[in-house]
Design brief:
Number of strands: 0
Order of helices and strands: HHH
Number of helices: 3
Strand content: under 5%
Helix content: 55-70%
Radius of gyration: 15 Å
Shape: elongated
Structural class: mainly alpha
Length: 76
């Protein structure tokens, strides 16, 4: 799983949904799958925290690289 700027505003929701689903499923294979997915989303959230905030605002995720501040250029 990799960070995508167009999906930035969804990572926190997906992380929380995975945790809720894992709790609902309980301690079984399906619950473990949700926890594994939550871990992947959490890693992205931790690694790209500033990018998630920036690309979640307005239409920042859909601006051309040339219009973005240099530190936020080059993301897919």
């Amino acid at each position: 799983m990799e960070f995508r700027k167009a999906l930035a505003k969804y990572y926190h929701t997906w992380y929380n949904d995975c945790l809720v689903s894992a709790e609902y499923c309980g301690d079984n294979e399906r619950g473990a799958k949700y926890l594994a997915d939550a871990k992947k989303y959490k890693e992205i959230i931790d690694k790209f925290a500033e990018e998630i905030i920036f690309f979640s605002e307005a239409d920042n995720a859909f601006l051309r690289d040339e219009a973005l501040p240099e530190r936020f250029r080059g993301y897919r």
